[in-house]
Write a structure and sequence with these properties.
Elements lengths: L1 H32 L16 E7 L3 E15 L2 E5 L4 E6 L8 E2 L4 E5 L2 H38 L12 H26 L2 E3 L4 E6 L6 E2 L4 E7 L2 E8 L18 E7 L9 E12 L6 E8 L16 E18 L8 E6 L4 E6 L4 E2 L3 E4 L9 E3 L11 E5 L8 H4 L7 E6 L2
């Protein structure tokens, strides 16, 4: 009996020994690893400084300059037509694509044979009706003299004095004269002349071609001046006094070639009117600038081509008591980092721009003191209140926006973490 109990006990111990051993080993490992070593904790080093540049913000009067773009277009472009039908016998060498012509110059000539015959016939008709009128006038005068010799008291019959016949002869003479004048004008119209000084954009006819009055001979445009249609944004409109009605003074504009930005050529232009309605898609107002002598015929400047894209610079009003922020200093459209030069700390601030151009964002914020420093470097880590060390040296390789602003140079700073 005792042997049986001992055997059962040994069997139970044999089954329980492995799980208990595993639990003991696990607890020992957990206890060993959870204990902190008895060595001194390593001292954290100071964070590496983040170098940046700053510029000094100055309250000033900022002259605005609005830049916009447009395309050169003719102010007067027409499709040249003939007023009479006929056959083309000659085309002027100045009526070629791109050629320059003068006002009154004959560009196209038509065959004149039929028109000269019509003029001769009309001239003969004038001679006949003039002679008939003279004969009727003589007969009317003779009839009046005869009636007066009779010395009768009653009024004479108009038929007796040949007044109706005389009026008909006079009407025939006027009709013949009108036909003659029309034939003469048609003969003159066989020479199709330029209505203004200009250039040929496209010629569409050739010698020997028969044309009608509705036939297009070509497209021509005036060369005395050209126009540029310039979009002005709603934000820029308050800065410009654009001419709205006749008599308003024009606004001076400088035109430069967009296709060749390195060119130093500047064309003087003037905004002479606006379209008077905002574009429904962009809410922009289009101003029309006039460019005199666009092809350099008088000034000798390089020509402005029709359709050429140009950049226009317009001087606007001066913004009073504002600060000009370099664009590089503005983060996420409306955030800047101010550097407190006395407390040596960095502070984030949200701005509300009043205007902006290609280089600066203009603000008017009483909360930013005159002479404040603003960080211009892109800071990947810039906690609010971080300590700042301002270094006196200047980076000569910094871009123009950060090396000089309103006559005050920037300083280098080192931004340290808290």
């Amino acid at each position: 009996m005792a042997d049986s109990k001992a055997a059962k006990l040994r069997s139970l111990v044999t089954r329980l020994a492995p799980p208990l051993l595993i639990l003991a080993v696990g607890w020992f490992g957990y206890a060993s690893l959870s204990l902190e070593p008895e060595e001194e904790k390593r001292v954290r080093g100071k964070p590496r400084p983040i170098k940046t540049q700053v510029v000094e913000l100055v309250v000033q009067d900022y002259p605005t300059t609005i830049e916009t773009q447009g395309n050169v277009r003719p102010h007067d472009q027409i499709t040249l037509n003939s007023e009479v039908a006929g056959k083309i016998v000659r085309i002027s060498p100045h009526f070629e694509d791109g050629a320059i012509f003068s006002k009154g110059e004959v560009l196209v000539e038509l065959d004149t044979a039929d028109f000269m015959a019509a003029l001769t016939s009309a001239e003969a008709q004038v001679a006949r009706t003039t002679a008939s009128h003279a004969l009727e006038q003589a007969q009317a005068n003779q009839a009046r003299e005869s009636w007066e010799k009779l010395a009768l008291d009653e009024d004479p019959d108009p038929l007796v004095l040949r007044i109706p016949q005389l009026r008909q002869a006079e009407a025939n003479m006027k009709s013949a004269t009108a036909q003659y004048e029309r034939a003469r004008r048609d003969l003159e119209r066989t020479q199709i002349r330029a209505p203004f000084d200009g250039r040929v954009r496209q010629r569409t006819v050739g010698v020997g071609q028969s044309i009608r009055t509705s036939t297009s001979l070509g497209i021509i445009f005036a060369s005395d001046y050209a126009e540029v249609r310039l979009p002005i944004s709603g934000a820029d409109l308050p800065l410009l006094d654009l001419p709205e009605v006749g008599g308003d003074p024009p606004v001076r504009v400088e035109i430069r070639d967009t296709l060749n930005p390195e060119s130093e050529t500047v064309w003087e232009a003037s905004i002479i009117r606006t379209e008077g309605a905002l574009d429904p898609a962009t809410l922009e107002l289009f101003a029309i600038a006039k460019v005199d002598d666009p092809f350099g015929l008088r000034t000798g400047k390089p020509p402005l081509r029709i359709g050429q894209p140009v950049t226009a610079t317009v001087s606007g009003k001066t913004l009073r008591n504002v600060m000009a922020l370099p664009r590089i200093a503005v983060k996420k459209l409306d955030r800047i980092y101010l550097v407190d030069a006395k407390k040596f700390t960095l502070h984030q601030k949200t701005i509300n721009p009043v205007w902006a151009d290609a280089r600066h964002i203009i603000i008017q914020d009483p909360g930013i003191a005159d002479g404040s420093l603003v960080a211009t470097t892109r800071l990947s880590y810039a906690p609010d209140g971080a300590r700042v060390e301002i270094l006196p040296d200047i980076n000569p390789d910094a871009p123009p926006e950060t090396t000089m602003l309103n006559g005050r140079r920037p300083a280098k700073v080192v931004v340290e973490g808290k």
